[in-house]
Amino acid sequence: MVVAEALAAQHIERDAESSLDAALALATTLHAPGQRERYRRLLDCAIEQADRALAAAEQERAALQEHEVAAGRERILATAMGARSTLARAHAARAADALHGAGQLSLSAQRAPTRDACDDGWRRVEAIVAGAEASARAAAISASELEGGSPRSKVARAARAAAHEAEVAARAARRIIEERNHAYTFHTDGGFSFGEGWYVAAAAVLAGTAIQVEPGKAGTAQAEAFLRDAGLSDHLQAYRSRPRAVKQTTEIVARAFKVDPSSAQGRLRAAFLADAPIPGAVIAWVDRRLAEAQAGASCRKKVLLWIREGTHHPHRNTTLAELLELTDLVQRTGLVPVLTGDALRDARVPEGAIDMTLFWKDPTFRQLDMRRAQLQFFEHLKRTHGLVGQLGVTTAGMDGPALMGLPTMYLTEASNVRMREWVGAVPGYQEIVREGGYLERVRHVLSEWAAAP
């Protein structure tokens, strides 16, 4: 019976070593499809078999007869040393793999489209890191037990080295958690959407989120000035890598509006516009452009028609055919179309429309207060010149005025996952999917705007 148990323990220990060797043989091919999953299964198997080998060896020791003690102890020691060596090395490999997994998952979690998805991803990262730390402890225990029995042996030295590797990996994994960046980036590079800044700032005003400003860009100083003027100085942090995805901020804003739309809008207006009068330079610029337009246009109700012409997702750009259709709809409901956004490409301004495209490129709107000045552009049109709403393809530029209370219709090929969060939450914010009869829906809303007192 004792001999059978001894053979069983030795057999399991050798199986554990074989499983570990098979796993380590895959180390250079882990990038290939399915290999990392196979690698992990083999490591799990090696650890489970090594633990079983230790348990079987302990059973053998307990069952030894007096005349078997000397030879039996030698067998048990050899088996236990082999199992503990396998455990130390397998747990070191598992800790290193956990570090890799935590790093990869943290990147995807940080890019998640919603705050809940982001936080859920980071909880999974925490679980992986905890696994790395557990493996580091297990490797240290195995190494210590080997050193206690044979401190100068080659096996003990290798186990101690493996335990050190596991500890280093576990600490690096824990740093991923500790260095998590909770801030949202206020982009100031011209390659990013200017309008996304409204989302980031609004999330800070309404939910206290942290912000970092992209440094060293042409718009960095203006962004910082806008945020400080909005009372968000305490929410600014130094720029560092791996921030949260800005796409989460639309949902954060929506949550605040769903709780109390009037309060949310009032807080944003107070932060973004304050109580200061609209500067004379902004008023003069708008009034002059309207005066240059057709006679009588200044006193009639108006609708902004947004034009999008960008290299990012060019399929979303405004087409001339649709712009002409929308211009005609606006005019037939008794409203004056005011073109804004990007410039028309290779086309004349439709008859009866007022051209205010590219207004933000005028020096009036490029000073240190450019962010607030651009919102004041819309505010002056609304207060003084009958601006009753805005219409156009999905573009973040529309969303600053929408948050300030300008009724908005945005056109999209399919329901927009991010922006539909605002539909029914932000007052007057509507999504128009381009499907059968959508132009009739646009006409109906325009008629409501025209009839409003």
Task: Offer a few descriptive terms.
two-stranded parallel ribbon, Rossmann fold, six-stranded parallel sheet, 3 domains, coiled coil, alpha/beta, 453 residues, 8 strands, 14 helices
Shape: elongated
Tell me the β content.
5-15%
Uncertain stretches: none
Helix content: 55-70%
Number of domains: 3
N-to-C SSE series? HHHHHEHEHHHHEHEEHEHEEH
How far is the N terminus from the C terminus? 98 Å
Count of distinct strands? 8
Order of strands, main sheet, comes to 5-4-3-6-7-8
What is Rg?
33 Å
Question: SS-based structural class?
Answer: alpha/beta
Largest sheet: 6 strands, parallel
Coiled coil: 40-67
Keywords: Coiled coil
Describe the protein in words.
- The chain has 453 residues and is α/β, with parallel strands linked by helices.
- The chain has 3 domains: 2-178; 184-259, no CATH class; 276-451, HAD superfamily/HAD-like (Rossmann fold, 3-Layer(aba) Sandwich).
- It is built from 14 helices and 8 strands.
- The protein has helices at residues 2-24, 35-63, 69-110, 115-149, 154-178, 196-207, 220-229, 249-259, 261-272, 280-291, 320-332, 370-384, 399-403, 438-451; strands at 184-186, 211-213, 302-307, 336-341, 354-355, 387-393, 408-412, 429-433.
- The strands form 2 sheets. It has a 6-stranded parallel beta sheet with strand order 5-4-3-6-7-8. A two-stranded parallel ribbon has the order 1-2.
- Helix 1 packs parallel to helix 3, helix 3 (69-110) packs parallel to helix 5 and helix 6 crosses helix 8 (249-259).
